[in-house]
Structure formats: C-alpha cells, structure tokens
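Revision sheet: structure tokens.
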Amino acid sequence: MSIDFSNSRRLLSVTRRAVEQYGMISEGDRIAVGLSGGKDSTALLCILKELRRFYPKKFELGAVTVDTGFEGMDFSRLSALAGEMEIPYTVVKSDIAKIVFDVRRESNPCSLCARMRRGLLHDTVKALGYNKLALGHHFDDVVTTFMMNLMNEGRLGCFSPVTFLSNKKLYMIRPFIYADEDDIRYFVRRNDLPVVVSTCPEDKHTDREKYKRMLDEMDRENKGLKHRIFTAIGKAGLDGFKSE
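Predicted:
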C-alpha cells in the first residue's frame, strides 16, 4: 500500500511539534503503537512511520493489539498494513469480553474492560522489549477528557502528554495531542486505511461519546470553544500540558 502524505503535512507537522515540545522520542527508543483498530491509532502508526524516515533521533517502531475477544473483529487488514510497512505487529488474544459481560456481568463494563486492556497492553509491550507506548489520543480527546473530569468528578484534570509508569518502567506518549480529529479522519479516508469496527455492545453508547457530542454542539454555537478550553489546559499547566 502506498500512503499519500501530500495532503497530510498538517498531521505530520503537529505530530512533530508535540514530540519535540514534550520530548516524547529519544535516540534509540523502541516505540510500540497501541493499535486498537480504530482510525486514530492506525493513522498514528502511519504518521510515526513517516516521521521516522526524517526525524533526527532514530527509533524503532512496532505495533501491539489487544484482542478483547468480541466476535466479528478481524485484524487481518491491520496485519497486512503493518507487513507492507515492515513494522513488527503483535496481536494478543484475551477473554476480556467474556469476563466483563458473561462472568462478571458488570453494570459499568467499560471501566473494567479498559483496566484489563491497559494492563494486558502494558505487560505485552514490556515483554516485547519496547520502552515506550504510543497512544492515539488527539486534540478532541484532550478536551473531552477534561470536561468529563470536571462534570463527573468535580476536578480539573486530563491525561498527560507523557506518562511514566514506574511500576512497569514504561513511558506512555501521545503524539497526536495537537491533531484535530477531522484531519485524522480525512487522512484515513483518503488512504483507505483499515479500520476495525468494534462489535462491543457498549460502543457509541459510552459517557465519553455523550460528552463528545455535547462539546461538538457547544463548539458549533460558540466557535472556537474547544480550542479555548485546550489553551486554558496548557496555560494552567494541568497534568504536564504546556502553553502553545
């Protein structure tokens, strides 16, 4: 597959900006992309592959997928994409779906599922010898997470651009924090990149989706609201964010 980056220079630019501003990549890093199958992580894998071609600090790149065990989720096209880009790709199978829905019958399944997926992903990445895990969280995720913490927990906070998991000796980096979701969507659509549609019964019905729709509506009525929230997060230095 030949990926066209000619109309995606903005994605490359904002990714490099985040990487350099937050020191996300060091010489000799071994970075695994947490490849969920969604558009964001698939785009991130491609952009980091292109960034590696000219970035002054040399790094290795791989990808890891946690198969939660929901029926009908096929990662073969992702495997083919990784193979064409000569990127090592690992799919680790699990019984997370069965445990959450059939065994535990969780009233809040998303919380337990997320914890189990994170734990398995971190352990797998470390076992494969990577020292950094790249996640596909983008600009819109930053703002949405901030609003969820504010409205649900009454606190000002977000995830961090760079997180060190001391118990795992593993860094998590988020190179897409300046990337607009629309730019990611356009890049994936233009290149016909594989996207694995989630078959989880809770997909698109989560609290996060509710807040995302709310913020989109508020941004339409108050143009630039999401960008002002993002700027405020940086000015306040919340969770390691810096002023733009």
